Amino acid sequence: MSLIINKLYDEQQKQWLIELKGEVDIYTSAQLKETLLKLIEEKQETVKIDAKSLDYIDSTGLGVLIGVLKRLKQYDKVLKITNIKPSIKKLLNITGLDKIFVIEG
Amino acid sequence: MSKSITDYIKLSIPNKPEYVSVVRLTVAAIANRMGFNVEDIEDIKIAIAEACTNAITHGKKEDKNNFDIEFIVKDDKLTMVVCDSGRGCITDEISVPNLNDPKEGGLGIFIIKSLMDEVEITSNLGKGTIIRMSKNRGDDN
Question: Which NCBIfam families does the record match to this protein (chain A) (predicted)?
């Protein structure tokens, strides 16, 4: 089990749509970091992550998202996350990260 | 009167990121067998993975080394002990994340402490770190 990242640029909403499938941990977080930072380099727009099929994320994955948010803030953009599973929502809640990411749905 | 039984399970895992998911699956099977509920099993999986990530990140960087995990299974309590032979740079004093200036690292120990019932971290400079953590099975199981 690893991580699949599907990416699409939404011209109308002017944001990146990212679908994460699988697990983000110490093994896969570098892949996520590289992909997201490359997208922001290409177009400095808001990143919206669909976490419907994201089964697991740990502190290394959350660290990547924090790094991505910092980069986005330089361009006055935000990091949105939608369709979060309860176990991941709990993790965002205890770390307080639900207050700095935009949580939708 | 029922007799209290303690079982021990030991794992030795390579210092490689790809093995953390193996530990997660192992602990899920152990906790499931013990009768923990789904939410608790998720907490335990996250906590053990954070401890392993910690051992791999702060332990000896050489791939050929292993680190050890011990599971102590009691009737209503699962204790997990993760030992690495690294630099021993972790302290028990972990602060709450600062959301005004969030850091990419340092969340792991905070997460473990939030999810587990008991956590004890022993870190000796040059000798390594031992993270010992327990989860009690609630009455609702």
Answer: ant_ant_sig (TIGR00377)
Nearest CB to A59 within list B21, B24, B50: B50
Look up the pTM and report it: 0.89
Instruction: State which amino acid sits at residue B105.
Output: G
Burial zone of B94 (CB within 10 Å; 0-12 exposed, 13-18 middle, 19+ buried)? middle
Cα gap A6→B126, rounded to integer Å = 43
CATH T-level topology, domain A3-104: Transcription Regulator spoIIAA (3.30.750)
For chain A, the domains span 3-104
Q: Is A72 in a helix, a strand, or coil?
A: helix
> From the list B53, B99, B103, which residue is nearest A26 (CB)?
B53
| Contact assignment for B110 to A95 by CB distance below 8 Å | yes
- What ipTM, to 2 d.p.? 0.88
Q: Kindly list the structural domains of chain B, giving each domain's residue range(s) and its CATH number in brackets, ordered by start.
A: 14-136 (3.30.565.10)
User: What average pLDDT does the structure give for chain B?
Assistant: 87
CB of B88 less than 8 A from some CB of A:
no
Nearest beta carbon to residue A27 from set B18, B97, B115: B18
